[in-house]
Amino acid sequence: MSELRRDPTIGTVVHVVGTRQERPNLPPSGCPFCVGGLEAPEPYEVRWFTNRWPAMEGHRCEVVLYTPEHDASFSSLGADGVGKVIDLWADRTAELGAREDVDYVLVFENRGAEVGATIAHPHGQIYAYDHVPSRQRRRLDAGWRPDPAPGDRLVNQIDGWTTYVPFAPTFPVSLEIAPRHHVRDLPSMSRDDREGLAEVLVDVFTRLDRMYERPLPYMMWLNQRPTMTAGTDDDAWFGIELVSPWRSDGVQRFIAAAEVASEEYFNPVIPEAVAARLRELGS
After folding, report:
1. How many angstroms from the chain centroid is the CA of residue 17?
2. Element of type H or E holding 209
3. Which of 95, 88, 94 is nearest to 109 (CA)?
4. CA distances from 71 to 76, 119, 123, 214 (A)
5. pTM: predicted TM-score of the whole model, two decimal places
6. Domains of the chain in sequence order
7. Alpha carbons 167 and 23: distance in angstroms, whole number
8. Phi then psi for 82, rounded to 5 degrees?
9. pLDDT tens digit string along 245-279?
10. Do 103 and 162 meet the contact criterion of CB atoms below 8 Å apart?
11. What's the rounded Cα separation, in Å, for the pair 255 and 266?
């Protein structure tokens, strides 16, 4: 059972999910996401299924498998493979968003044990919230738009999409990926939008895995328009945030007590230096 609680003083939302204590850290044998495994008994290209260990009730937590290849990465899928993932993200966003008990669909991924991923097989997750999460709400209310002039923080521009390092990133490696024209959400993306996004994601992940010549642990999430009411938040602008805790090769930056306490962060890595390094690592 999942219970949503809110801090009575500052309003922080906490989902208390005691049942997730029972989930296994690693599968007892084999990979459940490979063909023939527990969650993929039949051959597939991309696949989704309901999470057996959901963080929320009501079949609102899903797992998305990017490929049947266990040792693949997002960049190794190529634009065609990534395009299939984007289409599945869009389909699931539309279907979940049509439910009356869903106000916001969050697509996200954790890669690497350093950020808590327990299975190496390429996959992501989807949470369908019955409210708009507070960070996404603040971003919407602030009228977030892509930085029109990132300057030295620009990484690349491909097929109508821009990748840049934010001005004040919390994590050592942090990227924003956004369309240069107004796109609200995954379902409303044109075919050209989706093909451009696939190209830019392959480019970004290729660069990231070249930084230290090995897979970079990261967290990625997709910000998009809420699903609750047609005509609401029509000025929302789709964007992807991608962060990594590594401040150098294999060295993790930990968020310190003062940062957690104050929500003011001390980043040891210069944003412009990250952008310059990623620009160098293009194909």
Report:
1. 22
2. helix 191-210
3. 88
4. 9, 11, 11, 13
5. 0.94
6. 2-280 (3.30.428.10)
7. 38
8. -65, -35
9. 999 999 999 999 999 999 899 999 999 999 999 99
10. no
11. 9
